[in-house]
């Protein structure tokens, strides 16, 4: 409980920082006034905080939480500490489906992109699972087929971008870099309505993840129907990834970093690890977005790029640590 409260306090501080910093910095007292007494605060501050910065910050936190939990599921199901949602090709399927809607039906993209991303993620997960099936599926086979399918979907995404209408492609390129530009309250509500039940379901199934992370023979010996459980958890992870891609485009490395950071605090038991990974993912992506908006202001770096700049050294450190420990 102490660690959870500390994480919530850090997330609250990061949210406050996100509302105060930007192209036009707002003093802390003015931020508090706009949040607590908007009718008495300057209209410009209220507009900037309530319309521009607060929904963007909340959406970044929700997407980060989804990626953190998705990464936790992936690492347990694959029994691989270097696994993350993008490794299975699920992000690629969601991105491809959403991009197709953006380029082919630009007038309806706001309504159809979330649904397309979720369906694309589920379709990619189903295809990878089917291709991996040989009387059951093994984690290593899923990873290899996921990498191949992800590369194929990335190539198709690039092909569509090369032949799309210029204006639509420019918007899509910003989205593909992992950006929260233009985020509004509708996107926050949609992401929250998707994340909360999936997060609750994942936490309820924490014991299943504990067993899946063990050797398969041990999990079977303890009564787990491994293949059915693995398929169910992959589906939940696909929905989390699809929702995050729909909200902000494909964002890498958060699903890798968040579970590792959370595991160092809570240990491997998933009942404690899942909420900790959600908090860690929310904090990481929110800080990445804040840094991206301010490091070279007034220009902005998309959150997805900032996450990659943080995640690549982290991945290299994990590889070095694994070799050193081995």
From TrEMBL:
CDD domains assigned: TM_ABC_iron-siderophores_like
Membrane topology reported for the UniProt record: Multi-pass membrane protein
Keywords (A to Z) from UniProt: Cell membrane, Membrane, Transmembrane, Transmembrane helix, Transport
Keyword Ligase: no
Top-rank lineage group of the source organism: Bacteria
GO biological process: siderophore-iron import into cell
Family: Belongs to the binding-protein-dependent transport system permease family. FecCD subfamily.
The protein, known as: Iron ABC transporter permease
Organism of derivation: Pararhodobacter aggregans
């Amino acid at each position: 409980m102490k660690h959870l409260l500390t994480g919530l306090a850090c997330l609250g501080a990061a949210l406050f920082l996100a509302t105060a910093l930007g192209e036009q910095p707002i003093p802390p007292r003015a931020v508090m006034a706009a949040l607590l007494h908007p009718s008495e605060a300057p209209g410009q501050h209220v507009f900037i905080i309530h319309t521009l910065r607060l929904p963007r910050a909340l959406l970044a936190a929700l997407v980060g939480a989804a990626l953190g939990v998705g990464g936790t599921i992936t690492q347990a199901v694959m029994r691989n500490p270097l696994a993350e949602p993008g490794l299975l090709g699920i992000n690629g399927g969601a991105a491809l489906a959403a991009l197709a809607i953006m380029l082919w039906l630009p007038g309806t993209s706001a309504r159809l992109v979330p649904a397309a991303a979720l369906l694309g993620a589920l379709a990619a997960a189903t295809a990878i699972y089917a291709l991996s099936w040989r009387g059951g599926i093994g984690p290593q086979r899923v990873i290899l087929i996921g990498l191949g399918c992800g590369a194929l979907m990335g190539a198709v995404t690039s092909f569509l971008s090369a032949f799309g209408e210029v204006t639509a492609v420019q918007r899509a390129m910003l989205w593909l870099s992992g950006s929260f530009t233009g985020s509004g309250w509708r996107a926050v509500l949609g992401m929250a309505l998707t994340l909360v039940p999936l997060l609750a379901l994942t936490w309820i199934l924490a014991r299943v993840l504990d067993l899946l992370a063990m050797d398969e023979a041990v999990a079977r010996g303890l009564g787990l129907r491994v293949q059915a459980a693995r398929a169910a958890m992959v589906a939940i992870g696909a929905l989390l990834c699809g929702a995050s891609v729909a909200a902000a485009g494909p964002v890498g490395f958060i699903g890798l970093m968040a579970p590792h950071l959370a595991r160092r605090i809570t240990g491997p038991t998933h009942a404690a690890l899942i909420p900790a990974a959600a908090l860690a993912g929310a904090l990481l992506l929110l800080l990445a977005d804040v840094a991206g908006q301010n490091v070279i202001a007034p220009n902005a770096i998309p959150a997805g790029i900032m996450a990659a700049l943080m995640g690549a050294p982290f991945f290299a450190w994990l590889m070095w640590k694994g070799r050193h420990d081995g």
